[in-house]
């Protein structure tokens, strides 16, 4: 069996902590058994490893989330969508990738979201999807959650009235987000919550692509990705397929998609700098800034503070935040494969010059890409840590207190020996994240490029520290 985790989301429902670059699955607000804070995707990946499924799993995501995935999970296999085009194109791309890797057409492929909040038995149950496909003769097998209450927030899978022979049932129909009254009637009929988990044989998806006139070769599909219809897999495939089996899951499952549901599973009343009075019952604080936040006499509320903004909301009303925030706002905090950055200030002057100031954290042993900027000058002031600067092939040690200027057109990168923080001031007529041309991202490639500089051997030895 091959697992494909779908990682997407626009980050609106958990604003201001989430944004286009840091969706809900990347928020480190859950406490693990060691008392450490972890994100939903870190929790799920740990469960997948515990179930012995990590070697069979790939993550499909858009390119804006690649670096944060690498930052939080390390070197996991990732299929990169050139742009977001909903779940059907993403699954089609993942299937063509597996096909191009020589995976058998008879191999079972299981699709699931990257952020379910479940117990470990959930991943043991996923293995049973393969058995359900085999024994039922169905084209697709779904996993549904036994409902614990009549919710209007979820879709429902309604099985046909029949015995649950072999541990599966035939799917009769789907109902999307019914009223609570109708949901109660559906539950009486044996309906299950649709948790977005389904499996099929790889050959089934290849046949679907051919039938839709889409290429099955990965590189060709990748080149045509921008022209694919934006449509969900549910609408494009699942609801049109008459032969579907479903297996029930009776363990813990929750969608932590709103502040209300997320805080129910946080474990901690507050994260970050601040305090909550004892008479503020069922109130949570998450503060990513250094300034303290104090909450007094306010119950049933969420207070979330980040570089992107501040939210103070009654928990029941908090889902309305997605309708109130402005679209297209630039993320003020991002995690990258090498560390993180926080925007401190942005100014635009009368002559058209822009100045953007960031505080950047570079993890020990990690490096920036070897790149040049076209339109801007960067000035770095090292605050803490030590490492080496590579500038046009020359390697120089840097430490706290050093100031470095990078002119436009100058290839450069930075590697940290110990955790490093520095202030970066970008100045130019155009200040954009996309203003770069990268030659190398791997440190080994950068080092090879610097052979003959006279400092490479010293840098190689120091990098082991």
Automatic annotation (TrEMBL):
Q: Which residues form the Nucleotidyl transferase domain?
A: 4-264
Q: Which Pfam families match?
A: MannoseP_isomer (PF01050), NTP_transferase (PF00483)
Alphabetically list the UniProt keywords. Nucleotidyltransferase, Transferase
What InterPro entries has UniProt attached to this entry? Man6P_isomerase-2_C (IPR001538), Mannose-6P_isomerase_type2 (IPR051161), NTP_transferase_dom (IPR005835), Nucleotide-diphossugar_trans (IPR029044), RmlC-like_jellyroll (IPR014710), RmlC_Cupin_sf (IPR011051)
User: Where in the numbering of this chain does the Mannose-6-phosphate isomerase type II C-terminal domain appear?
Assistant: 336-437
- Keyword Nucleotidyltransferase found: yes
- Give yes or no: UniProt keyword Nucleotidyltransferase: yes
Highest taxon above the source species: Bacteria
Q: Which GO terms describe its molecular function?
A: nucleotidyltransferase activity
CDD domains assigned: cupin_PMI_typeII_C
For this UniProt entry, which segments traverse the membrane? Answer: none
What name does the UniProt record give this protein? Mannose-1-phosphate guanylyltransferase
């Amino acid at each position: 069996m091959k697992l494909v985790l779908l990682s997407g989301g626009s980050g609106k429902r958990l604003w201001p902590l989430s944004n286009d670059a840091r969706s809900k699955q990347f928020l480190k607000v859950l406490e693990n058994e060691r008392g450490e804070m972890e994100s939903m995707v870190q929790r799920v990946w740990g469960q997948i490893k515990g179930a012995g499924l990590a070697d069979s799993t790939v993550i499909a995501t858009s390119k804006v989330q690649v670096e944060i995935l690498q930052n939080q999970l390390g070197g996991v296999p990732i299929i990169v969508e050139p742009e977001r085009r909903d779940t059907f194109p993403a699954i089609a791309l993942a299937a063509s990738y597996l096909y191009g890797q020589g995976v058998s057409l008879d191999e079972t492929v299981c699709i699931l979201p990257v952020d379910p909040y479940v117990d470990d038995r959930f991943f043991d149950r996923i293995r049973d999807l393969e058995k359900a496909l085999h024994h039922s003769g169905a084209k697709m097998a779904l996993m549904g959650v036994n409902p614990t209450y009549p919710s209007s927030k979820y879709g429902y899978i309604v099985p046909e009235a029949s015995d649950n022979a072999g541990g599966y049932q035939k799917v009769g129909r789907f109902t999307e987000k019914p009223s609570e009254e109708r949901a109660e009637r559906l539950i009486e009929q044996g309906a299950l919550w649709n948790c977005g988990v389904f499996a099929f044989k790889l050959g089934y998806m290849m046949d679907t692509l051919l039938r839709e006139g889409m290429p099955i070769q990965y590189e060709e599909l990748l080149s045509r990705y921008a022209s694919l219809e934006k449509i969900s897999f549910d609408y494009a495939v699942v609801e049109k397929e008459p032969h579907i089996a479903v297996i029930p899951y009776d363990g813990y499952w929750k969608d932590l998609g709103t502040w209300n549901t997320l805080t129910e599973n946080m474990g901690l009343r507050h994260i970050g700098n601040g305090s909550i009075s004892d008479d503020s019952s069922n109130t949570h604080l998450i503060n990513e800034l250094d300034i303290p936040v104090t909450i007094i006499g306010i119950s049933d509320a969420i207070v979330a503070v980040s570089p992107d903004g501040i939210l103070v909301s009654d928990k029941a009303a908090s889902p309305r935040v997605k309708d109130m925030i402005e679209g297209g706002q630039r993320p003020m905090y991002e995690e990258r494969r090498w560390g993180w950055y926080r925007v401190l200030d942005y100014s635009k002057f009368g002559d058209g010059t822009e100045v953007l100031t960031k505080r950047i954290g570079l993890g020990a042993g990690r490096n920036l890409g070897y790149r040049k900027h076209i339109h801007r000058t960067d000035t770095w002031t090292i605050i803490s840590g030590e490492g080496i600067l590579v500038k046009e092939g020359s390697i120089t040690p840097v430490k706290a207190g050093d100031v470095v200027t990078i002119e436009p057109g100058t290839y450069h990168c930075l590697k940290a020996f110990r955790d490093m923080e520095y202030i970066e001031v970008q100045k130019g007529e155009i200040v954009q994240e996309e203003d770069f041309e990268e030659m190398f991202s791997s440190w080994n490639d950068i080092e090879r490029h610097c052979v003959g500089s006279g400092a490479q051997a010293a840098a190689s030895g120091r990098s082991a520290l």
